[in-house]
Design the sequence.
């Protein structure tokens, strides 16, 4: 989320959350229509009957130098991006990261993992036994993973992380916890609501998840201090105000906005950037209103939210982005893609042939995925 110096510790920037934690219970396409506003606005439905709603055609031959056994279209999301680093899970369950390494974020643990989420300067992952391990930065407890096993999803914000446990309940740690002193950015982002959820996504200082009872989005947390909405008249920009009555299969939380892919394949967004106003970084009542939260009729397969941009995979498996051009908006790669993760001013994708491609700002190697893997 933008290369601005935050008020906290002078080093914290927005993390990324992306579609790294979608649950298999959420099909990509649904034979029915969305409820609420989405249905009234004409969301479409493909009626695809397979579990993911995506064609399982054999991927073509690799079309770039990086050739490895990364996840392909039929796998759950297994790539995430933080401030200046990204990580991915290979088909053998090992994790590899690239980009910034000032806090050891490029040094994942050994083992076999199935899910992961990137924080600002670190990451957490779930192993094959459902245990959570975190590595990299640990400024306000975001690296203090809970014990136990059976965890199903995990994702991280700037200095907090959340997970869905074996009972489908939310657990969070780091900044914004119920016992933490009021130290910015404590806005309750690590104090989750009760209930049962799937489809967790963590933004800078807020989170959203899909309620298992009704498939609607529930969000908590917000923003504070210099990260308030512009103009700074409240604690947030509405990034936690999910539209009522709309059902989702995937969510993507960014800095001050959130988007979700509805059950009919529409991109529904809320928070800052719902228009296309003043996209200047520091001035004007609509500063950062870069259109990153523009709602689209679809169809959309997957989505990810960065700082002031949003990217998605459309029905033709192609990448489309909207928002701040600094994040590589307008320079999207061509080809067919399976997964997408957005960080601060950069994005990484997994092509349908299993290869990685990243683009955007590359000052610290965030768009340089490895061409080889030790042991290959």
Sequence:
């Amino acid at each position: 989320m933008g290369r601005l110096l935050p008020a906290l510790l002078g080093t914290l920037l927005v993390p990324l959350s992306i579609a790294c934690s979608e649950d298999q219970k959420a099909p990509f396409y649904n034979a029915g229509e969305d409820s609420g506003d989405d249905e009234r606005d004409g969301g479409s439905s493909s009626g695809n009957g397979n579990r993911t709603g995506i064609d399982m055609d054999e991927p073509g031959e690799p079309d770039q130098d990086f050739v490895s056994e990364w996840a392909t279209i039929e796998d759950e999301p297994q790539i995430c991006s933080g401030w200046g680093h990204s990580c991915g899970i290979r088909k053998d369950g090992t994790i590899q990261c690239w980009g910034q390494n000032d806090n050891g974020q490029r040094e994942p643990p050994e083992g076999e993992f199935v899910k992961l989420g990137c924080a600002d300067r670190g990451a957490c992952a779930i192993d094959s036994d459902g245990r959570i391990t975190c590595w990299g930065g640990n400024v306000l407890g975001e690296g203090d993973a809970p014990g136990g096993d059976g965890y199903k999803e995990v994702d991280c914000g700037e200095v907090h992380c959340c997970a869905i446990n074996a009972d489908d309940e939310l657990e969070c740690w780091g900044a914004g916890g119920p016992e933490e002193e009021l130290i910015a950015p404590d806005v309750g982002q690590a104090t989750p609501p009760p209930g049962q959820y799937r489809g967790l996504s963590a933004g800078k200082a807020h989170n959203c998840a899909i309620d298992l009872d009704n498939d609607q989005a529930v969000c908590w947390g917000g923003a504070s201090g210099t990260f308030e909405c512009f103009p700074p008249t409240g604690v947030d920009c509405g990034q936690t105000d999910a539209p009522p009555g709309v059902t989702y299969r995937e969510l993507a939380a960014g800095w001050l906005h959130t988007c979700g892919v509805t059950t009919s394949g529409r991109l529904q967004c809320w928070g800052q950037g719902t228009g296309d106003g003043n996209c200047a970084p520091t001035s004007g009542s609509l500063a950062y209103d870069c259109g990153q939260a523009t709602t689209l009729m679809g169809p959309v397969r997957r989505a990810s939210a960065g700082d002031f941009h949003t990217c998605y995979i459309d029905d033709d498996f192609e990448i489309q982005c909207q928002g701040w051009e600094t994040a590589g908006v307008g320079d999207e790669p061509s080809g067919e893609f399976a997964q997408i993760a957005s960080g601060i001013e950069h994005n990484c994708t997994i092509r349908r042939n299993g290869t990685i491609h990243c683009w955007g700002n590359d000052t610290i190697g965030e768009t340089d995925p490895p061409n080889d893997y030790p042991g290959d």
About this structure: The chain has a mean pLDDT of 78.
